[in-house]
Amino acid sequence: MSETNSIINTGLRGVTVASTKISHVDSDASKLIYRGYLITDLAKNTTYEELVHLLLFEKLPSQAQLKILSQRLASERAIPETLIAALKTRPKTALPMDVLQAAIAMLANHDPDAAKLTKDNTEDIAVKLVAKIPTIVAAWDRIRNGMEPVPPDTNLNHAANFLYMLTGEKPEDQTARDFDICLVLHAEHSFNASTFAAREVASTRAHMYAAVSAAVGSLSGELHGGANSRVMEMLITIDSIDAIENYVNHALDSGGLIMGLGHAVYKNGDPRALILAPMSKQLGERIHNTKWYELSTVLEEKTKAAFKARKGIDIYPNVDFYSASVYYSMGIPIDLFTPVFAISRIAGWTAHVIEEQFAGAAPKPALYRPSSAYVGDYCGPDECAFVPMDQR
Amino acid sequence: MSETNSIINTGLRGVTVASTKISHVDSDASKLIYRGYLITDLAKNTTYEELVHLLLFEKLPSQAQLKILSQRLASERAIPETLIAALKTRPKTALPMDVLQAAIAMLANHDPDAAKLTKDNTEDIAVKLVAKIPTIVAAWDRIRNGMEPVPPDTNLNHAANFLYMLTGEKPEDQTARDFDICLVLHAEHSFNASTFAAREVASTRAHMYAAVSAAVGSLSGELHGGANSRVMEMLITIDSIDAIENYVNHALDSGGLIMGLGHAVYKNGDPRALILAPMSKQLGERIHNTKWYELSTVLEEKTKAAFKARKGIDIYPNVDFYSASVYYSMGIPIDLFTPVFAISRIAGWTAHVIEEQFAGAAPKPALYRPSSAYVGDYCGPDECAFVPMDQR
Q1: CA dihedral defined by B154, B158, B159, B165, rounded to 10 degrees?
Q2: A384 and B37 in contact by Cβ < 8 A?
Q3: For B189-221, what is each residue's pLDDT tens digit?
Q4: Options 3.40.47.10, 1.10.580.10, 3.30.1490.270, 2.40.100.20; CATH of B23-223+336-363
Q5: In chain A, N or C: fewer CB atoms in 10 Å?
């Protein structure tokens, strides 16, 4: 394919594709709102289970509603034995996001109602996917390390159970709560690429599993879900506070960026980072290793100062910057950071699929079918006359 | 989620999201152009292998180039034994499109270079996917019917080999050529929903497998890929020419449509249908069963007349209308019609992923990140004050 300047691709920046009641990213005020509520309030006060209720069913649950949803989620955590058998056929080097994308599509095979496109059934599948995705991620990590998957423990809440299935050990209460908050913080972020992929697939009246599998594929791209893994790899590369100044200057001299600092959306800082930074600090203190927090905080300072000095602009950490040291300190393998993102974001994806397929007055959604501009100039402005094989 | 009129969703109709050199759908002139060439010329004169060269490498191949590509495709047809083992774990009731979506994501597990985002490597993966998708579809059909997959035969061309793997018998030459033409006709159609899904996922710098798996998910929706299956189901329901008049009147009285007649894009008829109609006739004559062709042609006439009489508009058959009877007459199971669509469209999807990731002057594509309008009114125009659990 010839390199050409004539291909344009705006990435739909600034194009409003739909209205939504699910979330609002207020980039000027640095506010993130899930169904009316500020993320700062939700992170402080709710569990992930409560948040799932809010996103899927539009309301913070009453105590009774929360109990019902929590029990449903716990009872749906197990994945079919034959799905585990399928995972065991996979090469141990398989990328966890690829395995997850496939496993979610395979979950449909076990659901006789997969393609039943009613709102109730689609909500049921949403609950199943929220429940089962952590089990798939943990099972794959065990299998690739030559161990049997740890069955879910219905006595643990959603966050604690994932860490338990991953490590085989019940996490400390505060660590489980920290992870719970991380799940709340990453659960939803409007029409980002993976959510848009889910809605796009759902718009054809494909089922929830197909849409969510596609979203996982979109999240697997390094421009989308890979950022906090790369923050951690960067911290490991830098390794010592003494090396930071040089690292920052070198990156900026060569026109690069510092991963996790700056956000395409929030102009005045990401509200989620303000919650994650102290969490990283306290978590480091509890495990007696504050190295990654300290590196992060000095890197943030030095990068901020360098951007201010060189370009006169203020930059801030985004959600990926401190979640890197948080997940690493919890013992989560770096290449599971993006699957962990999916474990949280499934709440947003499923809420968006439900909205795409069932909200509004129209009985059916309008299939996404954008236009493109044909700029093929293979035979000038005209069509090509067909050239028989012997004349090519 | 409350029903509301405030959710709008335009489906991106009329929004130009990118320029492309791959294909042009000229809706007024009823022309479909692949890289400069008219579909009518290509269907008459080229094989699917030639077409893959045109779509992926921008040129109709010379004899030498075609030989090289054909050999590469043939040598890449086999799928890993452990992927077949994974397919054997699947419930036999699994929907073929769900199995295909998962299997394509799993193919990445076997490719150590899956995530190597160079143009050469991405083109290599495109060739592998074109080669392997028919093998997956045929293998799954054999497995669900309790049979062993038929290994690909490198002495057969792409089209003939698929029919051979599906049935275990080498097809007649004319049937193989008819299927070859069907593959040419369905290979590409600009920014339809599945292609857009592939491009959307690729825009995050996810790899080709992730993007194509997502496209399969999008195609699985009944508004997109399911149409020719439903045409066939309709023909089977109608069953006799005598029943057509009533069927058409009943459908139109109740505000319905006749599947396969009318196209959202072509105003004056789909050029592909003009090739498929005589193919359906001749294929029926060869197998001594013209029933489905005859039903189709009378249904077309009666529906045309009814639309003209009632609404004063001309409608035409689209690509799905006669491909239904063609595939059915070839012995392809109805629920494989959409996977067969994927077997062809993989050429277009992969060409679009390559264009999305590597065309143009910019080193990286712009991630698709559209905007949305937040219309949440949970607490009026203001944010909600957080309500503690005991007050809900």
Answers
A1: 50
A2: yes
A3: 999 999 999 999 999 999 999 999 999 999 999
A4: 1.10.580.10
A5: C
